[in-house]
């Protein structure tokens, strides 16, 4: 799997996408860039309709739908219960239906490792951005530790682009960020630690925390990483 990713280039291609078909092709490019076997986007729009696109085989996608695996899939169930990224190994695979589903997925080359980003949008919209691969636990742990932030940003960027294709959707209403909040999120997005951000802005870490929490509230974000992703996707900060 890849250790260095040209994330800026991927985001430029994503920003230029004008259709869901463009996003299908982009997921293939993302998989190649990260050196993983599969990527998948699962979208439940505001009307409750499900859409899937990615690199899983047509046979597996059809089988998943025909067998209504969405009702027993621990990834779907787990991500509905969580806001943070989900490593598949942390999910409950003990029920018989889940074990049978897992074996079927393995038989269709889905991969024994996976990482899913749950995303919640307006009017009940829910999405998952997932990558999966076949490798041992140690290799996967190193990969997710190195690339989790990139994957979170990609998931939220892709979801925002997909929402552009929903009809009759107005623009998000977000409270404006203060200059200090923008500075704090920008530096964090650039990879600065909180201590480095506080030193750069000549403020205490306590004051920095106040700015971050205020920005997170305004952006409707569940954590700092989500706030950064939202701010970037809305064009409020540039990196």
Please tell me about this protein's structure.
- Helix content is 52%, strand content 13%.
- The radius of gyration is 18 Å and the shape is globular.
- The protein has helices at residues 7-16, 20-34, 58-66, 74-80, 96-107, 137-164, 179-189, 194-201, 205-219, 224-233; strands spanning 38-44, 50-54, 86-87, 113-120, 126-133.
- Helix 7 (179-189) crosses helix 10 (224-233) and helix 9 (205-219) packs across helix 10.
- It is α+β, with helices and mostly antiparallel strands.
- The protein has two domains: 7-164, Transcription factor LuxR-like, autoinducer-binding domain (Beta-Lactamase), CATH 3.30.450.80; 179-233, Winged helix-like DNA-binding domain superfamily/Winged helix DNA-binding domain (Arc Repressor Mutant, subunit A).
- The chain starts with 6 loop residues before the first helix and ends in a 6-residue tail after the last helix.
- Strands 2-1-5-4-3 form a five-stranded antiparallel beta sheet, sandwiched between helices.
- The chain contains ten helices and five strands, in the order H-H-E-E-H-H-E-H-E-E-H-H-H-H-H.
Notable features of this structure?
five-stranded antiparallel sheet; Beta-Lactamase; 10 helices; 52% helix; 239 residues; alpha+beta; 5 strands; Arc Repressor Mutant, subunit A
Helix fraction, binned, reads 40-55%
Instruction: Give the count of structural domains.
Output: 2
CATH-wise, what's the superfamily of the largest domain?
A: Transcription factor LuxR-like, autoinducer-binding domain
In CATH, the architecture of the largest domain is 2-Layer Sandwich
Q: Please report the number of helical segments.
A: 10
**Mean pLDDT score:** 87
């Amino acid at each position: 799997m890849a250790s260095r990713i040209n994330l800026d280039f991927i985001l430029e291609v994503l920003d230029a996408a004008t259709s869901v078909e463009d996003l299908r092709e982009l997921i293939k490019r993302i998989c190649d860039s990260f050196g993983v076997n599969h990527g998948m986007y699962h979208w439940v729009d505001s009307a409750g309709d499900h859409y899937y696109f990615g690199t899983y085989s047509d046979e597996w996608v059809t089988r998943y739908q025909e067998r209504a695996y969405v009702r027993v899939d621990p990834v779907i169930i787990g991500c509905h219960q969580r806001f943070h990224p989900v490593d598949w190994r942390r999910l409950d695979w003990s029920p018989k239906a889940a074990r049978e589903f897992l074996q079927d997925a393995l038989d269709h080359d889905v991969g024994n490792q996976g990482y899913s980003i749950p995303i919640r949008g307006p009017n009940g919209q829910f999405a998952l951005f997932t990558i999966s691969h076949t490798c041992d636990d140690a290799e996967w742990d190193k990969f997710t530790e190195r690339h989790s932030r990139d994957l979170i940003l990609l998931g939220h960027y892709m979801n925002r682009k997909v929402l552009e294709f929903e009809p009759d959707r107005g623009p998000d209403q977000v409270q404006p960020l203060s200059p200090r909040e923008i500075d704090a999120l920008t530096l964090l997005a650039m990879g600065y630690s909180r201590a480095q951000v506080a030193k750069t802005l000549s403020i205490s870490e306590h004051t920095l925390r106040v700015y971050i929490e205020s920005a997170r509230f305004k952006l409707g974000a569940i954590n700092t990483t989500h706030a950064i992703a939202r701010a970037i996707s809305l064009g409020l900060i540039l990196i």
